[in-house]
Design goal:
about 280 residues, binds 1-O-pyrophosphono-5-O-phosphono-alpha-D-ribofuranose, globular, 9 helices, alpha/beta, 15 strands, D-Maltodextrin-Binding Protein, domain 2, Alpha-Beta Plaits
């Protein structure tokens, strides 16, 4: 049995739940029920705050967890990143009010900077030899310049809507972040198989993203040659003989982007009965 910590709310909750469901790990819980059994007998889910997950994983309260890679940095937790995921992208930025005299990092000398990411901010000041005054808040950081308690902020940006709604402009990006699966260092040894299974499943889901499974019949040897030339596939397409002599079925994995062009060329080459299927996982 492994315990996996996931965000109990916020923008990472739904995509994490969805990703686990695709991996065959479904649970009912959320708002109130914070520890849940799942459809996988090997996995129990703990629902906690996204920013607390690195610490829970570090001390072994959870074997693994889904969180933001920036929060792993911020927490300074001694955990392993098992795999990066394909959602939860955001940046940590330094921003100032429109028209501010602060135009670059060096203008921050002796200024007040509000943030909830005190470790990332502290490291940034140290690396840039800036002596700034840090003002720690736990959220809604963008309001602090309006309240006159900060000259600049260091905070997450996703769409940029909150910055512009509060008339703030970015000066510099401190780091890029994405959702990731992390694991406790002991669990990585003691529960290697279980964690590896979750990792492969997640990587398979990411690998299948924007990919389709395509099947096409080639009714002659000449057409088969053309069809094989057109199909990119992961390695090389699979060619199967049909019951009728001299006829073949060709299977391949094709990116969604390339699909329309590939289908047109297959038709032009004499390909028949083209089927396109969704893919669940691609594990190289
Ligand atoms: C985050 C972040 C920004 C906002 C950025 O806050 O701290 O405030 O989202 O998103 P945007 O660029 O798409 O506007 P969150 O909603 O997590 O709440 P918080 O302010 O309480 O941390």
């Amino acid at each position: 049995m492994i315990k996996i910590a996931i965000p109990n709310k916020g923008r990472m909750y739904e995509p994490t739940k969805e990703m686990l469901a695709q991996a065959g790990i479904r649970f009912s819980g959320g708002e109130r029920k914070l520890v849940c059994r799942t459809t996988s007998k090997n996995v129990e889910i703990m629902l906690v705050r996204t920013e607390d997950i690195p610490k829970y994983v570090e001390i072994g309260a959870a074997d693994a967890g889904f969180t933001g890679s920036d929060l792993v940095v911020e927490s300074k937790a001694n955990v392993s990143i098992v795999t990066m995921l394909n959602y939860g992208a955001c940046r940590v930025v330094l921003a100032v009010p429109e028209g501010s005299k602060i135009k670059s990092v060096k203008d921050l000398q002796n200024k007040r900077v509000a943030t909830k990411l005190v470790n990332i901010a502290g490291e940034f000041f140290k690396n840039n030899r800036i002596n700034a005054k840090m003002f720690e808040v736990s959220g809604a950081v963008e309001i602090t310049p309006l309240l006159g308690v900060a000259d600049a902020i260091i905070d997450h940006v996703d769409t940029g809507a909150t910055l512009s709604a509060n008339r703030l402009v970015e000066i510099v990006t401190l780091l890029d972040s994405k959702a990731c699966l992390i694991a406790n260092k002991n669990s990585l040894v003691e529960k290697k198989k279980e964690i590896e299974e979750v990792k492969l499943s997640l990587q398979g889901i990411i690998g299948a993203e924007n990919m389709k499974y395509l099947m096409v019949n080639a009714p002659s040897d000449e057409i088969l040659k053309e069809v094989v030339r057109i199909l990119p596939a992961l390695e090389s397409p699979t060619v199967l003989k049909l019951a009728k002599q001299g006829k073949y079925a060709v299977h391949a994995v094709v990116s969604e982007q390339a699909l329309a062009g590939v289908v047109r060329r297959l038709k032009e080459a004499g390909g028949k009965d083209i089927l396109v299927l969704n893919l669940e996982k691609v594990i190289p």
